[in-house]
């Protein structure tokens, strides 16, 4: 289990999903609707990921960063970032006929962690987006989902100019459980993001022992 460098939201008050699948959305005769959470540190690319893949106009709560916010938000490594998510990102993608994913992006700053419980409620699983230049920023999200037994994958956002690492190196650095997938991705690229989302659907299906065959074959 990862060791957080800063404290994630309190996990004592809310029950963990344990070994049963959560309420994952509307399941009709011809539609399975799954909720996924997109989490990670400040400026790691969560809004970009949701925007790149959403088939509807994404809901964004981006606001301009101000000088007062610089005193409480750690902008090291993302000094050129001019806006920040203050509530959530929302998007939707149909992987194929009969399988629709609803994406909820969390805000990255510590001061908005109180919203994570609401955004995570009923989610099938989560993507923890990572930047290898600031890998420590992943620890709070990893601890959060591990403590609640929510299946998750690590999506390593391969920024231009950043050093490349193997999935095993990232897994060791984050002290992940052996079965937690690490997937290299480009948050700007639709097909790359789709592959990442499919990986968490499949991983969650294995965790809950609920096959999701619709995720195995996807079209453009």
3D structure, described in words:
The protein has 220 residues and is α/β, with parallel strands linked by helices. The chain has a single domain, classed as Rossmann fold (3-Layer(aba) Sandwich), CATH 3.40.50. The strands form two sheets. The protein has a six-stranded mixed β-sheet with strand order 4-5-1-6-7-8, with helices on both faces. A two-stranded antiparallel sheet has the order 2-3. The longest helix has 19 residues. It is globular. The termini are far apart.
Helical amount among residues, as a percent range?
Answer: 10-25%
CATH topology: Rossmann fold
- Radius of gyration over C-alpha positions, nearest whole angstrom: 16 Å
- The tally of structural domains comes to 1
Can you tell me the CATH architecture? Answer: 3-Layer(aba) Sandwich
Number of helices: 6
What is the averaged pLDDT score? Answer: 78
Main beta sheet: 6 strands, mixed
Unreliable sequence segments: 11-20, 23-28, 68-73, 77-86, 213-220
CATH superfamily: P-loop containing nucleotide triphosphate hydrolases
Instruction: Please trace the helix and strand order, writing H or E for each element.
Output: EHEHEEEHEHEHEH
Number of strands: 8
Give the percentage of residues in beta strands. Answer: 15-25%
Structural class: alpha/beta
Strand order in space, largest sheet: 4-5-1-6-7-8
| Backbone shape | globular
The CATH class: Alpha Beta
The termini sit apart by 36 Å
Question: What is this structure's SSE topology?
Answer:
Elements: E1 32-40, H1 46-53, E2 62-64, H2 67-70, E3 83-85, E4 89-96, E5 99-105, H3 116-120, E6 125-130, H4 139-147, E7 152-157, H5 167-173, E8 182-185, H6 190-208
């Amino acid at each position: 289990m990862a060791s957080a460098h800063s404290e994630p939201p309190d996990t004592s008050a809310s029950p963990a999903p344990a070994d049963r699948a959560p309420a994952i959305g509307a399941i009709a005769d011809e539609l399975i609707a799954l909720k996924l959470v997109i989490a990670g540190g400040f400026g790691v690319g969560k809004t970009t990921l949701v925007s790149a893949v959403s088939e509807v106009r994404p809901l964004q709560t981006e606001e301009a960063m101000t000088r007062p916010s610089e005193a409480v938000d750690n902008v090291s490594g993302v000094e050129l970032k001019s806006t920040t998510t203050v509530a959530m990102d929302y998007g939707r993608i149909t992987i194929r006929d009969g399988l629709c994913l609803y994406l909820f992006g969390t805000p990255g700053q510590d001061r908005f962690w109180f919203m994570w419980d609401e955004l995570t409620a009923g989610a099938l699983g989560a993507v923890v987006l990572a930047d290898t230049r600031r890998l420590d920023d992943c620890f709070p999200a990893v601890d959060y989902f591990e403590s609640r037994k929510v299946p998750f994958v690590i999506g390593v956002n391969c920024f231009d100019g950043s050093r490349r690492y193997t999935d095993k190196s990232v897994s060791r650095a984050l002290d992940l459980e052996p079965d937690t997938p690490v997937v290299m991705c480009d948050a700007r690229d639709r097909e790359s993001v789709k592959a990442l989302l499919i990986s968490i659907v499949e991983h969650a299906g294995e965790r809950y022992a609920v096959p999701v065959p619709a995720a195995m074959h996807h079209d453009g």
